[in-house]
């Protein structure tokens, strides 16, 4: 079995070296890039399964890299930044990152988040589907294919991150059921819910809604049940 390949893109060589040591010790194969363009070159050539990405980099910054990656890939992205403001975190997540950590960070926490992202990314492949109906769900013109990890509208691909896909599939596979932010977080992120993570769920729901409404001509697929959570009606 081939080891999981992780790309570290950071122009701070000391930080990149530290992260590489921790990930290598866990058995991951680690590649590095010191700027955004180099990172994109690596992604084009190697089967990268997760990206640890600094925001401030030369040539292409981290946000530019996220946008470029999301045009063609659903690779999980963990962003790193020295900026601790909430709006910086929200910008990173709404651009397409799956998680966000502020420098300086605890290396063991970073490792835990990497493992959590990889669990979510590979969760699909570990599941045995109970029926064919679970493999493909159709809502209006939207088709969700879990085996292919693909979402289409009238044969047009809807470009979702792995996190957005998992949220959509969770809600769509339980039509009419209301899921709280806590239930969504623990089901999708496979991690313990904290009050501070409510905003993380809200940001991903908002981004997912925007993409779906754009493709469905304004149809509001995901409904908010105020004070309770979110649902998709049958």
From TrEMBL:
Alphabetical keyword list: DNA-binding, Phosphoprotein, Transcription, Transcription regulation, Two-component regulatory system
Pfam families the UniProt entry points to: Response_reg, Trans_reg_C
PANTHER family: REGULATOR OF RPOS, STAGE 0 SPORULATION PROTEIN A HOMOLOG
Residue stretches making up the OmpR/PhoB-type domain: 134-234
A GO term from the CC aspect: cytosol
Compartment(s) of residence: Cytoplasm
SMART domains to which the protein is assigned, alphabetical: REC, Trans_reg_C
One MF annotation (Gene Ontology) recorded for this entry: phosphorelay response regulator activity
InterPro entries: CheY-like_superfamily, OmpR/PhoB-type_DNA-bd, Sig_transdc_resp-reg_C-effctor, Sig_transdc_resp-reg_receiver, WalR-like, WH-like_DNA-bd_sf
Protein name as it appears in the record: Response regulator
Main location: cytoplasm
Organism: Paenibacillus sacheonensis
Modified positions (4-aspartylphosphate) in chain numbering: 54
Classification lineage: Bacteria, Bacillati, Bacillota, Bacilli, Bacillales
Gene Ontology annotations of biological process type: regulation of DNA-templated transcription
